[in-house]
């Protein structure tokens, strides 16, 4: 059986205890994410457990799992995660209000024997769009999700509050694999994110408003075209970013090329 894109596991975690532990993390413990080219705004983290061979405490690795100070100093983390998991990495990842994580893949998770990445939303405002393979994953606080992040994914925090997930990398052992499969039957369907919806609405406006098309015609420079499109969309209360527009432009070119392929 091929690995699913996502699954909400039929397991419970102690969200109140996790939130209490989160509240005890000092402000200075949060460190900016090392993939600085992947995001805009505040994307930061706190390492609870990390591989001994990781280049930084927030980075990936394949070595022996090492418990870091925040985990060792607060036993609530271990109590709240009382599950038979072999955890190689445990990180708190925070995306601030207005923050964006651009679409990317975590290629280290692509092999059949790679770690399985689990997400537990701790703080999850309604304005957060976690996109996986172009679909919005409807994660709620306190749920435990498997996500195949070797696939394209991105995150937008359109809301006013910060988004914090507890992210676990676990060995692909039989019990965990069974829980991933067991969760598929009750996993809610994925949806459409705000950026994709607003981009579709802007396309519809282009078809119905000739003046809007005229404002973009003749812009041969792609950056000028993108900047003008974003400005026109913003004037109409539509929000999507440069990366969303570039992806749509690539898809459009690919579709045009495919129709002439024999």
TrEMBL record:
Origin superkingdom: Bacteria
Any Pfam family: Asp_Arg_Hydrox
Domain Aspartyl/asparaginy/proline hydroxylase span(s) in chain numbering: 86-170
InterPro entries: Asp/Arg/Pro-Hydrxlase (IPR007803), IPNS-like_sf (IPR027443)
Name recorded for this polypeptide: Aspartyl/asparaginyl beta-hydroxylase domain-containing protein
């Amino acid at each position: 059986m091929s690995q699913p894109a996502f699954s909400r596991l039929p397991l419970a975690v102690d969200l109140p205890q996790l939130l209490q532990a989160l509240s005890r993390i000092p402000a200075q413990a949060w460190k900016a994410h090392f993939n600085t080219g992947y995001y805009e705004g505040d994307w930061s983290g706190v390492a609870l457990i990390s591989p001994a061979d990781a280049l930084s405490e927030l980075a990936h690795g394949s070595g022996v799992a090492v418990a870091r100070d925040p985990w060792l100093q607060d036993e609530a983390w271990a109590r709240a995660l009382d599950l038979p998991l072999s955890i190689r990495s445990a990180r708190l990842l925070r995306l601030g209000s207005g923050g964006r994580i651009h679409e990317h893949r975590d290629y280290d998770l692509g092999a059949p024997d790679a770690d399985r990445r689990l997400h537990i939303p701790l703080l999850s405002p309604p304005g957060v769009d976690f996109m996986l393979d172009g679909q919005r994953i409807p994660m709620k606080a306190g749920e435990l999700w498997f996500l195949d992040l070797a696939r394209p994914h991105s995150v937008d925090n359109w809301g006013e509050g910060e988004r914090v997930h507890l992210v676990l990398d676990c060995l692909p052992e039989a019990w965990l694999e069974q829980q991933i499969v067991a969760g598929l039957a009750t996993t809610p369907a994925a949806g459409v994110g705000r950026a994709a919806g607003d981009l579709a609405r802007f396309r519809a406006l282009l078809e119905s408003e000739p003046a809007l098309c005229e404002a973009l015609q003749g812009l041969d420079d792609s950056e000028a075209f993108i900047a003008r499109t974003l400005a026109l969309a913003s004037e109409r209360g539509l929000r999507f970013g440069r990366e969303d527009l570039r992806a749509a432009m690539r898809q459009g070119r690919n579709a045009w090329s495919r129709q002439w392929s024999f």
